[in-house]
Amino acid sequence: MMKWALVPLLLLLLLIVGSLTALLFQLTPSLLSQLIAEPEFHFAILMSLATSLTSLFFAFLIAIPAAWVMTRSEFFGKRAVDALFDLPLVTPPLVIGIGLLLLLGSQGPFSVIFPELSRWLFSPLGVIIAQTYVASAVLYRSAQGAFAAIDPAFVRTGLNLGLSPAKTLILVEIPLCWQGLMSGGILAYSRALGEFGATLMLAGATRFKTETLPMAIYLNIASGDFSLALGCALILMALAVVLLLALHRLKRRKTHAKP
Predict the structure, then answer these.
(1) Which of 65, 116, 138, 258 fits a 20 to 30 Å CA distance from 18?
(2) Are 97 and 200 contacting, i.e. CB atoms less than 8 angstroms apart?
(3) In the predicted model, what is the mean pLDDT of residues 235-241?
């Protein structure tokens, strides 16, 4: 039985290692020199880093308070609201993008309140909105788990000492679960960095305007420029490896910190 179970394990490893190796073997000195001199390549890297970091900042502002309220409060319909926060995690990104476009676009209800918003969607602002949406959903779920893991005695002690709930959050809870929040932040950042479907629908695919790394791969594969698409894929893979190493380092520190 054990031997048969090894077959799917080896098959999965073969697919993972094989696809990564296939990408790395395409990296040649001539391709590297071509990429270094390519302005579109530089633009896609800077656009991806700038928009994903901005999105992560907004995701922290949205997801941390939301997760804290959902963990520390009880109200009618809480389970239904909590289940709704899982919806972005299982919804196809293209569907998310269409929904956001209908909500925030010129024909949506938000255009009545913020008419200027729809005019700015097909710009880096649209990229940030799409990335923030998906990153917030990932960070919310991680933050909720981190807050729920805190011993309630610490929270009660803070409140008994006269701290307000907000000060208890900042001075007691966040320091106790910062590693869980940072792990969630890394996962959210990786999700924002690789976001494609929602961004395509909400911000469009325009060179030197809304061209993130995933968008550059799409545009250049479509136009037949395989080398630039390959360079963008290699950068995304390198960033993914860095984020994965950071995530594992945080997990090890968390494990060692346990009594």
Answers:
(1) 138
(2) yes
(3) 91
Residue 115 predicted with pLDDT over 80: no
Find how far residue 112's CA is from the centre of its chain.
Answer: 30
What b-and-e string marks burial along 112-150, b requiring 16 or more CB atoms within 10 Å of the CB? eeeeebbeebbebbbbbbbbbbbbbbbbbbbbbbbbeeb
pLDDT range class, residue 192, cuts 50, 70, 90: very high
Task: Write b or e for each residue in 28-42: b if 16 or more Cβ atoms lie within 10 A of its Cβ, otherwise e.
Answer: eeebeeebeeeebbe
Q: Which residue has the tokens 């250049």?
A: 220
Whole-number pLDDT of residue 254: 67
Task: State the amino acid at position 98 in one-letter form.
Answer: I
131 is written with which tokens?
A: 């990335």
Could you tell me if residue 224 is left (phi over 0), alpha (psi between -120 and 50 degrees) or otherwise beta? left
Q: Where does the chain show beta strands of DSSP type E?
A: none
Tally Cβ neighbours within 10 Å of residue 50: 14
What is the maximal distance between C-alpha atoms in the chain? 66
Q: Rounded to an integer, what distance in angstroms lies between the CA atom of residue 187 and that of residue 55?
A: 13
pLDDT at 21 over 70: yes
243's tokens: 């984020």
CA-closest candidate to residue 254, choices 176, 144, 155: 176
Instruction: Provide the phi-psi class of 212: left if phi over 0, else alpha when psi is between -120 and 50, else beta.
Output: beta
- pLDDT for res 44: 94
Measured distance between the N- and C-terminal CA atoms of the chain, rounded to whole angstroms: 38
- Per-residue pLDDT for 259 more than 70? no
